[in-house]
Prior knowledge:
The structure is a homotrimer of 152-residue chains. With 152 residues, chain A is an alpha+beta fold. In chain A, 30% of the residues lie in helices and 39% in strands.
Amino acid sequence: MTTDETPGPKIPSPELYVEVTQFYARQMHRMDGGDFGGFAASFSQDSVFAPAGGGGLRGPEAIETAARAAAGRFGGAQPRHWFDMMTVEEADDGTVSTSYYATVTVASSDGSVQVEPTCFVRDVLVRVAGTLRARSRVIERDDLTARARAEG
Amino acid sequence: MTTDETPGPKIPSPELYVEVTQFYARQMHRMDGGDFGGFAASFSQDSVFAPAGGGGLRGPEAIETAARAAAGRFGGAQPRHWFDMMTVEEADDGTVSTSYYATVTVASSDGSVQVEPTCFVRDVLVRVAGTLRARSRVIERDDLTARARAEG
Amino acid sequence: MTTDETPGPKIPSPELYVEVTQFYARQMHRMDGGDFGGFAASFSQDSVFAPAGGGGLRGPEAIETAARAAAGRFGGAQPRHWFDMMTVEEADDGTVSTSYYATVTVASSDGSVQVEPTCFVRDVLVRVAGTLRARSRVIERDDLTARARAEG
């Protein structure tokens, strides 16, 4: 136990923190609104996206195609992404590392809401022409983590 | 694809962003705590509230009456409102436009929790004697959106 | 109705607000990641933890033991804590009072997600060697609140 000795984490500036909240809000509004091109445009040209369960996508065009395909699972229901417990750390070179919880709710026309498996996500954000873009995203799905643990 | 050309959104000041978070936290504590008068007092005298499914309410007294009536659906269970993915934009005249995801969880005495249909909400906030008040709220319920899409 | 007369709440500084978000994100990453020692180290030596349903824990060692025991209910499933509607107020002596909604999702290896009863939590945070620590936490579980209300 090192209560009094553990150094505190590096805290992001309020300006950066707020910019990051707005980045994710707009990115997810696009995704959940079916604007997959707009969603993909929030990734940098050299971005890498590692979905849960393996594989990897390189660049906005591959991400757009995959996001559109993945949304097929919703049928006509309305997805919403929810994030929480986000850490934000800025490196000396200006890149921003975040980590956060994520889940998706799916609202059907009959009024039911399904909660998809929770995830732990790690992003690296960079500035392109002054604006934040995601350069990498790595998603770990908690049900797969639990399964791996059980089979461990 | 316009990754490198899309201009970034206007970011709110950290002071405003934090003030907005506190506005909503207190507004929802009142609502979920059954203080419908306090909830309604967070709306301006000239406010307009457009609930999901149609109709419109004008002013704090109508909003208080409607909020109290709507809470009847919970029986004795405890509701909690959850918001996420909030965009915050301040216009030149100082009005603040927000948009966000919202849902309500309902905790029953038997330990079960029900998740109500998710919503997309758009507010306009203004200052009254220096303090933020909601001047308008427009709620779109995602299950109704999905139903309209299916009937499209 | 006192729309125009109710004074606004005291708003935390952006720096403090962001520091508080990072405190909780890291505290919950530790808890949900099974690092109960790290979780407990985020409490001050003189801390008091009042779990839902009664009883009280004093100090990091008791909190660590109780957190590890409580996590047994998850079996091998993956818990995630979610907070929202957080008020943050700093007193003149620098102590920080927060209040917020909390729930836990539990992701099982079969892909199902369970939502645990929502809670209302009140914390007092203090600085130890410059870093935020929780000095007290009081948890009210909403299903128990609903039950007490029903039993009147």
